[in-house]
């Protein structure tokens, strides 16, 4: 079941096409990574979901029905370019922003008090925003974004400006939100956090989706049948024991042990490799090399030919 | 709708609570009051003796103009034209002509002089004439009563029925003996004052809107907000919120200025009235028939005498029309320009970048001010007419013209065009605004703005 599906979205800005027939389906109660290099069209896509701008073509369905202005109350958005009124009190401002999302004054205040004590920032309530550090302001913004308990949350680079302790606090909260039933769109350039948090991703480049699907599936698809083997120091050339289609891509010596990376041809298994080598070396370990999201990102974006889309589910 | 109300509230409250607003609210009336009181005080304290020649063709006012400390009257029995020709040689300060009327009582008089007529002299003449005419009407009413009508005497009714407005118009006689109608001082002052006030308010509050938009853009809160409300709602909420701040300030100014002036001028004129008791004698016509009613009447009239000259003179302007149109032209003039100010704020990244776009808004407003002298001298001429019809200049120029009297159709046309101008401007501004607020770090030119209009 999808909470949000955007079908064939196009958006043209004068001479520049920001989105070209982009289709993205976001499964309910998942964390969805929206990836892509700068200027690929991610922010335009997010703004279209938030109904800040309208698409030229295409349709968006929220919970099975076409997206309406009323759905704004069910979406929480933390933009990349974010801030607060500097001269306003923190508490007063948070109440104002929550009321703009449709909460009553009393309800907003009640929930804010809960979250402020949860984040241990109750003491800031009457402080002016300009007295707060950037990280402190970000915490307030995060609270304001989730306060109206939206079904869909959109975080654009949520961790920028946070120290590692607060990044962890935030990650925990994001996972909590998912546990409580929310769906989260997560846009970032930090691939480590994508791997840590996301269930699904879509990669946008040059205004089009070039890769999307379940993270585990994608990684599987990008495996190259490459293995890392550790063995006892040995003076000869490993290559002499391998058939010509087994590609030795690197070796490393670390004290007593050496590590070699070997790419196997299609159809060969790690057992074939071991069978070949065991007579000559003493094996200490064997690992399959699984590509990181970072590698996948770089590979897909640099190799991308604009016509084909890799699709995995 | 509820959201735009929240925005209006925030915009209004944050501004009204600011120190600068409170300081302006107190300082403004003090300056305004000083501006109004000082010239009056100066003219009241000029001790130079002025002689006024009187040609009273009606005969009603013979011997009624009593000399005061600094005005002396002498009556002429000559022809008006001859008197005008001789005026320069006579050395008189002014020549008062009260033309004969056929049916009604004479309520018009012309005051010829070389320069502007002193407000004191004019209002004294006005008062004496009014008093005399009202006394005559009262006398007539009392005679009617003496004739034995049975209707009960209602003092208020009688007072209302004898209420008289006298129009003393001033004419200038130049060196060659030609005459031209001199624009009355009060109309001119009121016109230029209203014009400047509108000009000031548009700039003051328009740039507040612009700064507010830039603040939202540079603090990066704008995208957070427009994920909850439409950009148009945010823009209009700000424009309306600031308009309410402007109205609040204006009303506070009016009330405080009035309070200050009354507090200062009343003792001033009270002192003056003791020095010139001549005015009291004019009303001193005893009434034999009904002493009680007469005393009541005289007592009721007494405070009217005390009403100070300033307000007397100013009351020649149609105040409800003046105030009503001021509020209208202030509000819609501001709304028209505020839309542009908001669009500029949305298009730039910082206040320093606003310069290039300010020109087109500044020029029409500045033009209205530069041409003010010209407009006030010829308030019905083609320049004044067209500038008071075109929406961009009409708020300031129409306000300058109104004290001189403007036909209602012109006023209506100007108002309708201003409303249409406001709608058009807001429509355009909203398009520029909604694109601009999401653009960061990009220098925009007019070509860009033109493109945004078509998105």
Mean pLDDT of chain A: 87
CA-based gyration radius of chain B = 28 Å
Number of helices of chain B: 18
Q: How many DSSP E strands of chain B?
A: 6
Class by SSE composition of chain A: alpha/beta
Main sheet characteristics of chain A: 7 strands, mixed
When the domains of chain A are counted, the total is 2
The percent range for strand residues of chain A is 25-35%
Count helical runs of chain A.
Answer: 9
- State Rg of chain A: 24 Å
Secondary structural class of chain B: alpha/beta
Please identify the oligomeric state: heterodimer
Binned, the helix content of chain A reads: 25-40%
Q: What is the number of domains of chain B?
A: 2
CATH class category of the largest domain in chain A: Alpha Beta
Of all chain pairs, the largest interface belongs to: A-B, 26 and 22 residues
Q: Any idea of the CATH topology of the largest domain in chain A?
A: Rossmann fold
Write a structural description.
The complex is a heterodimer of chains A (about 325) and B (about 450). Chain A is α/β, with parallel strands linked by helices. Chain A has two domains: about 1-220, P-loop containing nucleotide triphosphate hydrolases (Rossmann fold, 3-Layer(aba) Sandwich), CATH 3.40.50; about 225-290, 2-Layer Sandwich (Alpha-Beta Plaits), CATH 3.30.70. Chain A contains nine helices and 15 strands. In chain A, strands 6-7-8-3-9-10-15 form a seven-stranded mixed β-sheet, sandwiched between helices. Chain A has a four-stranded antiparallel β-sheet with strand order 2-1-4-5, covered by helices on one side. A four-stranded antiparallel β-sheet of chain A has the order 12-13-11-14, with helices on one face. Chain B has about 450 residues and is an alpha/beta fold. Chain B folds into two domains: about 1-35 and about 185-265 and about 315-455, no CATH class; about 50-180, 3-Layer(aba) Sandwich (D-Maltodextrin-Binding Protein, domain 2). Helix content of chain B is about 65%, strand content about 5%. Chain B is built from 18 helices and six strands. Chain B has helices at about 1-15, 20-45, 80-90, 120-145, 155-160, 185-220, 220-225, 230-275, 280-285, 290-305, 310-315, 320-345, 355-370, 370-375, 380-390, 395-400, 410-435, 445-455, and strands at about 50-55, 70-75, 95-100, 110-115, 165-175, 180. In chain B, strands 2-1-3-4-5-6 form a six-stranded mixed β-sheet. In chain B, β5 (about 165-175) and β6 (about 180) form a beta hairpin. In chain B, α12 packs parallel to α17 (about 410-435). The two termini of chain B are about 25 Å apart. The relative contact order of chain B is 0.11. Mean pLDDT of chain B is about 80; it is low at about 275-315. Classes of the chains: A alpha/beta (about 325), B alpha/beta (about 450). At the A-B interface, β6 and α2 of A face α1 and α7 of B.
């Amino acid at each position: 079941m999808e909470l949000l599906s955007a079908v064939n979205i196009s958006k043209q800005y004068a001479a520049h096409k920001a989105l070209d027939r982009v289709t993205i389906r976001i499964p309910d109660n998942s964390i969805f990574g929206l990836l892509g290099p700068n200027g690929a069209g991610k922010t335009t896509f997010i703004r279209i979901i938030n109904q800040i701008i309208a698409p030229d073509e295409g349709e968006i369905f929220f919970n099975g029905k076409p997206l309406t202005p009323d759905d704004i109350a069910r979406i929480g958005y933390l933009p990349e370019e974010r801030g607060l009124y500097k001269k306003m009190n923190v508490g007063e401002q948070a109440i104002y922003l929550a009321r703009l999302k449709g909460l009553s004054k009393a309800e907003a205040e009640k929930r804010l008090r809960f979250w402020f004590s949860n984040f241990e920032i109750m003491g800031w309530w009457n402080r002016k925003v300009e007295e707060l550090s950037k990280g402190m302001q970000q915490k307030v913004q995060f609270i304001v974004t989730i306060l109206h308990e939206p079904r869909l949350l959109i975080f654009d680079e949520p961790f920028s400006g946070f120290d590692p302790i607060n990044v962890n606090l935030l990650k925990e909260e994001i996972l909590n939100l998912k546990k409580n039933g929310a769906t989260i769109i997560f846009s970032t350039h930090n691939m480590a956090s994508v791997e840590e948090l996301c269930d699904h991703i879509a990669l946008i480049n040059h205004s089009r989706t070039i890769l999307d699907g379940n993270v585990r599936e994608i990684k599987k698809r990008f495996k190259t049948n490459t293995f890392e083997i550790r063995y006892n120091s040995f003076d000869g050339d490993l290559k002499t024991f391998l058939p010509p289609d087994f590609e030795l891509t690197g070796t490393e010596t670390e004290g007593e042990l050496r590590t070699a990376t070997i790419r196997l041809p299609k159809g060969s298994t790690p057992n074939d490799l071991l069978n070949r080598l065991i007579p000559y070396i003493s094996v200490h370990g064997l690992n399959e090399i699984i590509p990181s999201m970072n590698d996948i990102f770089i590979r897909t974006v640099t190799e991308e030919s604009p016509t084909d889309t890799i699709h995995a589910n | 709708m509820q959201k735009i109300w929240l925005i209006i509230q925030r915009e209004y409250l944050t501004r009204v609570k600011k120190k600068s607003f409170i300081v302006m609210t107190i300082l403004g009336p003090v300056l305004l009051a000083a501006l109004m009181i000082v010239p009056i005080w100066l003219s009241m304290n000029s001790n130079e003796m002025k002689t006024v020649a009187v040609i009273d063709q009606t005969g009603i006012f013979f011997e009624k103009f009593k000399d005061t400390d600094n005005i002396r009257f002498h009556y002429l029995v000559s022809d008006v034209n001859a008197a005008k020709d001789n005026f320069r040689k006579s050395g008189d300060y002014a020549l008062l002509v009260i033309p004969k009327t056929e049916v009604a009582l004479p309520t018009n008089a012309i005051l010829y002089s070389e320069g502007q007529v002193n407000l004191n002299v004019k209002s004294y003449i006005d008062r004496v004439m009014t008093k005399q005419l009202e006394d005559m009407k009262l006398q007539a009413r009392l005679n009617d009563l003496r004739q034995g009508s049975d209707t009960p005497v209602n003092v208020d009714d009688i007072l209302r029925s004898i209420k008289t407005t006298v129009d003393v118009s001033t004419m200038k006689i130049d060196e060659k003996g030609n005459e031209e109608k001199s624009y009355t001082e009060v109309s001119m002052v009121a016109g230029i004052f209203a014009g400047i006030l509108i000009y000031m308010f548009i700039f003051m509050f328009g740039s507040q809107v612009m700064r507010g938009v830039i603040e939202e853009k540079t603090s990066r809160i704008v995208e957070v907000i427009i994920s909850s409300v439409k950009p148009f709602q945010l823009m209009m909420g700000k424009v309306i919120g600031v308009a309410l701040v402007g109205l609040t300030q204006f009303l506070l100014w009016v009330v405080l200025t009035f309070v200050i002036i009354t507090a200062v001028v009343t003792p001033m004129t009270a002192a003056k009235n003791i020095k010139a008791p001549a005015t009291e004698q004019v009303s001193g016509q005893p009434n034999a028939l009904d002493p009680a009613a007469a005393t009541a009447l005289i007592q009721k009239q007494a405070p009217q005498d005390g009403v100070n000259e300033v307000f007397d003179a100013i009351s020649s302007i149609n105040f409800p029309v003046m105030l009503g149109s001021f509020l209208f032209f202030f509000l819609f003039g501001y709304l028209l320009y505020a839309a542009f100010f908001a669009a500029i704020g949305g298009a730039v990244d910082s206040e320093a970048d606003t310069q290039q776009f300010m020109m087109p808004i500044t020029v029409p407003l500045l033009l209205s001010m530069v041409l003010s002298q010209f407009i006030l001298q010829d308030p019905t001429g083609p320049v004044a007419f067209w500038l008071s019809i075109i929406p961009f200049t009409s708020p300031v120029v129409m306000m300058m013209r109104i004290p001189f009297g403007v036909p209602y159709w012109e006023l209506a046309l100007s108002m309708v065009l201003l409303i249409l101008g406001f709608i058009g401007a807001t429509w355009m501004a909203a398009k520029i605004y909604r694109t601009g607020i999401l653009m960061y770090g990009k220098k925009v030119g007019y070509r860009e703005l033109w493109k945004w209009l078509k998105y």
